[in-house]
Amino acid sequence: MNVQNDLPNGQLPAGQLPPVLPGSTIGIFGSGQLGKMMTTAAKLMGYRVHVFSPDASTPAGQVADREFQAAYEDVEAVEEFAKSVDVITLEFENIPVAALAAAGKHVKVYPGDQALAIPQNRSLEKNFLRDHDIPTCEFRIVRTLDELKAAGQQIMPGVLKTTSGGYDGKGQYVIRSADDIETAWAELKTDEAILEEFIEFQYEFSVIGARSANGQFAAYRSFRNDHRNQILDVSISPSGLEASLDAQATEVVQGIMEGLNAVGVLCVEFFYRDGQILVNEMAPRPHNSGHLTIEGHATSQFEQHLRAVCGLPLGATAQVAPAAMVNLLGDCWSGGEPNWQACLELPGVSLHLYGKEKPAAARKMGHITAVADTVEEARRLAVAARDSL
Ligand code: AMP
């Protein structure tokens, strides 16, 4: 494989890995929409892509060169997959550790052990933030109802969350008073949870950073995010966050990525409250709030992720047009097939459908991005496009 540097005889600077160049094969664990958009970006750059997941007829499988369908626990299948690719990354962080270890015997697996272990467990994540002096909300880890009652004396109102396995508001319960505690504990059905202080934020935003296998770092300016029923609803960029806070958030993301030795892109979600920024959580992969980078930025988050895991130079993160993204959940299908014609009539609107078969109510089926001269107009167009469905 070709290695590009100025050293003689193809030598690499100390500690650097040879890049995985276009023409090579990228492996992806997980085959949902993030895998699909990653695969599409990889195909544009001339890579081959193999995806691995237990599911059939998957979004990513529709565009990949090869789809391995097997359980993550099937070590033999995982090893066969790993032997067929030049590097592996993943589209969601809850891949069993044993699968990653089996794959790691044959090929580099990114974002890396720490970057996976810590964000997938809210207790490890919060302790990591505290140990690195990164501003986050007050929290207590609780393992029993009595511990929750004791924590509730100090933190109220709060949000009780399972420490692992929760996403998009699943495994969460808002505790408004001591009366909610017993129900919350019973509903969550878990043996470890975290009680977080309920943050009365003015808004939420996210910053996506990228760190390459060779340590280069780059980040997008922040995206402002509105959630509905704890699921992302609308993202806009530019976010309107003050430049100094944006810079502070970027520094936080860089510190997190270096502390985790993360390779790829990593999204940090923040709360903004009274001029202060607080980290809510992080995800070591492309993120829903970064989908607008496909149309809105010089390099999409998916291409940036691939550049990072392949050890290529990172792309420019400059914004090329104000942009807004709205999610399309299964609810959009409640009255039958949506009116695609109407939504595509609006200027600057791009439609992304993930190719999922069943439009269940809160299931992410696709998204719409609009670009315009101003972010207000982009948002208006994206929302109008969805309303027209
Ligand atoms: P999460 O899965 O932790 O990102 O939570 C989903 C959404 O729930 C967040 O984007 C917030 O809108 C809300 N949320 C989560 N944690 C808190 C908190 N501690 N205080 C207030 N709102 C929260």
Explain what the structure shows.
With 389 residues, the protein is α+β, with helices and mostly antiparallel strands. The chain folds into three domains: 12-109, Rossmann fold (3-Layer(aba) Sandwich), CATH 3.40.50.20; 138-197, ATP-grasp fold, A domain (Dna Ligase, domain 1, 2-Layer Sandwich); 203-387, ATP-grasp fold, B domain (D-amino Acid Aminotransferase, Chain A, domain 1), CATH 3.30.470. The protein has twelve helices and 17 strands. The protein has helices spanning 33-44, 75-83, 97-104, 113-117, 122-131, 145-154, 181-188, 243-260, 293-296, 301-309, 340-344, 375-387; strands spanning 25-29, 48-53, 66-69, 87-90, 139-142, 158-162, 172-175, 193-197, 203-211, 217-219, 223-228, 231-237, 264-273, 276-283, 323-329, 349-353, 364-371. A hairpin with a 2-residue loop joins strand 11 and strand 12. Helix 1 (33-44) crosses helix 10 and helix 2 (75-83) crosses helix 3. The longest helix has 18 residues, at 243-260. It starts with 24 loop residues before the first strand and ends with a helix. The relative contact order is 0.12.
Examine the coordinates and then state which fold CATH places here, giving the name of the CATH topology of the largest domain: D-amino Acid Aminotransferase, Chain A, domain 1
- The proportion of residues in beta strands is 25-35%
Largest sheet: 9 strands, antiparallel
Number of helices: 12
What is the helix fraction of residues, given as a range? 25-40%
Number of strands: 17
Q: Are any ligands bound, and if so which? A: adenosine monophosphate
Question: How would you name the CATH homologous superfamily of the largest domain?
Answer: ATP-grasp fold, B domain
The sequence of SSEs as H and E is: EHEEHEHHHEHEEHEEEEEHEEHHEHEEH
